[in-house]
Amino acid sequence: ASVGCGYPDRVMIPNAQQLMSPDVARVALMGRSKAGKSSIAAMVLSGRRTNPHDTLLFHSHHPLIVQHVTDNELLQYQIWDIPGSYVEQGMGDLMCGDKRLRERDLFRMLSTIIYVVDSQGESALHGDLAALEQCVNSVTAMNPSINVEVFIHKTDDDMFLTQMQLAERRSVVEKVLDAIPSELTTHMTSIYDGSTLESMSRVVSKLVAYRWALQDLLDDLQIACSFEKSFILDIGTRLYLATDSTPPSMDFYALCVELMDVVLDMTTVYGEHPGVDGTGNFFDNMAAANVQLDNGTVICVRQVGTFLALMSMVRGDNYTKPAQ
After folding, report:
1. Tag placement on the chain: N or C end, fewer CB within 10 Å?
2. pLDDT tens, position by position, 259-281
3. How far is 154 from 135, CA to CA, in rounded Å?
4. Per-residue pLDDT tens for 155-188?
5. Counting beta carbons within 10 angstroms of the beta carbon of residue 301, is it exposed (0 to 12), middle (13 to 18) or buried (19 or more)?
């Protein structure tokens, strides 16, 4: 089932016992069938290995599929891809392998729900929004502390659509935005640009226990080193887990993701040893890079922990070349 859904090999269909481990944050992707949940999960969890076009071939799945993200030292969590049939049938209990997971237990276990709305088609204005309202009301009644966020997905402009069709699609998106309760955080996402990774980063970074302390540390680093912006990236997923207090720049974050791929390629080819942990990770405490862009800006990359990288941007006139 995991292969048919397009997931990487380490995704599993778990039994109930494997889901009950304490002190693990859990993020659930929910929504109707064909909303794009599995495509989002595959793009995040497989890094750059999944071509966005390949996700169009994913078929709907019926079992619960769970991915464990435990590579880095800062945050261990699970991503649950809940089948669309669960929402379409009015929720309730969920089969987990050969055991039934009660609805109340399910939602009490979750830290965050990402509800995915398909923005392409009138179903977004009817079935999706009705299901979203039911989901929010049910979930918050059972777990008032849960964080619910909405991904308005497939918001990319199709080059084969006419101007009239594009205008109709944008009108649907605007109506969806107007209909979603204001207390819910909404994100506009597409698998064809960096918006999915950036939105997932905003969601997942809220699960980091010391995120405010990390933000303060990055602010201090920004002052001491004249950095314009900094991220701490999980190099396995390319999600940022912490950033400073300046507003995130999607363009800079997308550039960091691309640069991380280049750095990993270089360390894989020229690295001296595949990491002491035996994972084949060449990005160790000796890995570093400084890349100067055409406008003189320099992006500095340093390893700050297992599968964690600090990526900072500094203006060329504030950059001092490291001593040889």
Report:
1. C
2. 888 888 887 777 665 554 455 56
3. 21
4. 776 655 667 766 766 777 777 777 787 788 889 8
5. buried
